Automatic annotation (TrEMBL):
Subunit structure: Monomer.
Organism of provenance: Acer saccharum (Sugar maple)
Keyword terms of this UniProt record: Hydrolase, Membrane, Transmembrane, Transmembrane helix
Gene Ontology terms, MF aspect: protein-N-terminal asparagine amidohydrolase activity; protein-N-terminal glutamine amidohydrolase activity
Residues annotated as transmembrane: 16-34
GO CC terms of this entry: cytosol; nucleus
Reaction(s) this enzyme catalyzes, per UniProt: N-terminal L-glutaminyl-[protein] + H2O = N-terminal L-glutamyl-[protein] + NH4(+)
Designated name of the protein: Protein N-terminal glutamine amidohydrolase
Annotated function: Mediates the side-chain deamidation of N-terminal glutamine residues to glutamate, an important step in N-end rule pathway of protein degradation. Conversion of the resulting N-terminal glutamine to glutamate renders the protein susceptible to arginylation, polyubiquitination and degradation as specified by the N-end rule. Does not act on substrates with internal or C-terminal glutamine and does not act on non-glutamine residues in any position.
């Protein structure tokens, strides 16, 4: 099971932070995600590292960059209940859903039934 292979570090035991995961249905992600690689440039526009040889990823709707939408998470984004609505949202929402590590195991238990 994917959850059992998650590594846990005790260095985070005494912090106010906790693990969050964005779960996006793969077909939706592959159609919706876009990155023009701006995150790979410094403030003056120079490459921080050599970019990949393949073309930047453009979404089906022609969006050229939405990486930040996928990686930015705030408290309001975190789901409060793992239920039918949350499961439906994973399969229907462009950005999927965000859950904490406790909800992750419950979520995968429900969809694997």
């Amino acid at each position: 099971m994917a959850v059992s292979s998650l590594e846990y570090s005790s260095q985070f035991d005494h912090t106010p932070f906790y693990w969050c995961f964005r779960i996006v249905h793969a077909p939706i992600f592959l159609c919706s995600f876009a990155s023009d690689r701006r995150h790979m440039k410094d403030p003056t526009g120079n490459w921080i590292a050599e970019p990949p040889s393949y073309e930047p990823i453009v979404a089906e709707d022609k969006t050229v960059h939405n990486l930040n939408e996928y990686i930015e998470i705030s408290g309001e984004n975190i789901s409060t209940n793992v239920g039918v609505e949350l499961i439906n949202d994973v399969f229907n929402k462009k950005l999927g859903v965000v859950m904490n590590e406790n909800q992750l195991e419950e979520f995968f238990s429900q969809i694997s039934r």
